[in-house]
Amino acid sequence: MLANMNGLIRCFAATAIALTLTACSGVHRSVVVQPAGGHGSTVTPAPSAPGGSYQVARGDTLYSIAFRNSVDFRDLAHWNGIAAPYTIWPGQVLRLSPPGGSAGSTHAVAAAATPRPVTTAAPAASAHPSTPAKAAAPMFENTTETVASKPASTAVGAASTAATSPASAASSTTVVPVAGVSTLSPASLPPPVVPAVSAAVPAGATRASGGVSWRWPADGGLGKRFQSGDAIPGIEVYGKSGDPIRAAADGVVVYSGNGLVGYGELVIIKHNDSFLSAYGHNRKRLVKEGQRVSAGQQIAEMGSTGASRDELQFQIRKDGNPVDPLGYLPSR
Questions:
Q1: Is 8 exposed, middle or buried (0-12, 13-18, 19+ CB in 10 A)?
Q2: Could you tell me which of 102, 101, 60 has the C-alpha nearest to residue 82?
Q3: Residues of the signal sequence (predicted)?
Q4: Structure pTM?
């Protein structure tokens, strides 16, 4: 019996040793099969600069790049260490956001630094705001004082005479009574209704806003109005090919070219450190970069480059952001 117990003990001992070896060998395999360098899968590439970058192309200016990306030209210059006069070269790569990726403007605009607008004498027509302008005469040409200075009483009086002439003729006509029909004497007839004459914008009319004296850049009807979400925000003034496009305010031409997609032949004017204005879809540009222009000076001819019809695509940018031009231009 003692021999049997010794045999059972040896059997249990052998079994325990076998189980221990099996467990050890399993742990060894779990370490070996882990792929070397597996921790590399958690490494991600460094993120690109917020806002991206832009490679300068031939014909670009710092202003046109800032305009295209709706940023202030001063911020763009600051982010890239570019000092006035903001010279850039084809192939140069510019960052389009602050080095730290923070949003917001990095410049401070002092009121004293804003150039004083050049004020021009208002034409004589401004004394008669109700005078209708002739359809064929440009609304903002400085040489149209002779047309705009006609007395308001002449135009209104002519309209009144034309409208009341039927009543005058009726007063000299013999009224023949008809049986069963009541007649009214001319004296009892209501006075004729004279259509109201809307006030026209005098030639060269301006409106001071934002330290700039603004005027309409083109004649013609107002088409599309400003919508901030548009890819090309601004207003459209309809006209015909060759109509004059004029500077909306005094300033310096900072871009004259056709390198911005969707704008055709484009002119951009800097008015002060805060305001730019842009004139697109022109048939022909008449000014060069660096040229100083005066309010009302013709800078281009209306056309349809980059558009489906003859029109002016007009924008005002404040600190790089599009704003509604109707909030700055004289009322029409």
A1: exposed
A2: 60
A3: 1-25
A4: 0.55
* CA–CA distance, 141 with 147 (Å, rounded to integer): 11
Please identify, in words, the CATH class of the domain defined by 53-95: alpha beta
Radius of gyration over alpha carbons of the chain, in Å?
39
88 touches 61 (CB < 8 A): yes
- In the numeric block, which tokens belong to residue 182? 């009541």
pLDDT, mean over the chain: 71
User: Are 53-95 and 206-327 the same fold in CATH?
Assistant: no
Q: How many CA atoms lie within 13 A of 308 on its CB side?
A: 0
Residue type, 26: G
Q: Residues near 210 by Cβ (< 8 Å), separated by ≥ 6?
A: 274, 275, 318, 328
DSSP 8-class letter at 140: T
pLDDT in tens, 193-210: 444 433 445 557 899 999
- 3-class DSSP state of 8: helix
pLDDT for 118-148, tens place per residue?
A: 333 344 443 344 444 443 333 333 333 333 3
Between strands 265-270 and 275-285, the pairing is antiparallel
Tell me how far apart the terminal alpha carbons of the chain are, to the nearest angstrom. 123
DSSP labels for 18-82? Answer: HHHHHHHHHHHHHHHTSPTTGGGGG--PPPPPTT-EEE--TT--HHHHHHHTT--HHHHHHHTT-
Task: Name the burial class of residue 22, with classes exposed (0-12), middle (13-18) and buried (19+) by CB atoms within 10 angstroms of its CB.
Answer: exposed
Non-local CB neighbours of 99 within 8 Å, separated by 6+ positions: 49, 79
> How far apart (Å, rounded) are the C-alpha atoms in residues 332 and 329?
9
Q: By C-alpha distance, which of 170, 318, 152 is closest to 234?
A: 318
* Burial label, 154 (beta-carbon count in 10 A; 0-12, 13-18, 19+): exposed
- CATH no., domain 206-327: 2.70.70.10
